[in-house]
Amino acid sequence: METQPICQSCGMPQDDPEFFGTESDGSVNPDYCLDCYVNGSFRDPDMTLDEMRESIIDDMEKMQESAEKIDETVRKLDDLKRWN
């Protein structure tokens, strides 16, 4: 079974290349989503892991995601490329 790629900053599923991050030359960076990475840099380069956790919790609560899904997503952050 193939695992769906996720953004290595926020954990959002990366299922559509249209939403992949971009490098400064306009090429695609499939490791990150456009919400996190554009033109070769992070949109919020000073964001901490704790701030990312808070942001994800807020966004997912607004989308009325279950507490279980929110917890699962937040726990995955520690393993992502940006935070290692």
Characterize the structure shown.
The chain has 84 residues and is of the alpha+beta class. It has one domain. The chain is 29% helix and 15% strand. It has two helices and four strands, in the order E-E-E-E-H-H. The strands form two sheets. A two-stranded antiparallel ribbon has the order 1-2. Strand 3 and strand 4 (41-42) form a beta hairpin. The radius of gyration is 13 Å and the shape is globular. The model has no long low-confidence stretch (mean pLDDT 94).
Q: What's a quick, concise take on this entry?
A:
The protein is an alpha+beta fold and 84 residues long. The chain is 29% helix and 15% strand. Strand 3 and strand 4 form a beta hairpin.
Described by its quaternary structure, the protein is single chain
Helix content bin:
25-40%
Please state the structural category: alpha+beta
Count of helix runs = 2
> Can you write the helix and strand succession as a string?
EEEEHH
Can you tell me the number of structural domains? 1
Terminal CA distance: 26 Å
Shape: globular
Mean pLDDT: 94
| Unreliable stretches | none
Number of strands: 4
Please summarize the sheet with the most strands: 2 strands, antiparallel
Tell me the strand percentage band.
15-25%
List the helices and strands and how they pair.
Elements lengths: L19 E3 L5 E6 L3 E2 L2 E2 L6 H14 L4 H10 L8
Antiparallel strand pairs: 1-2, 3-4
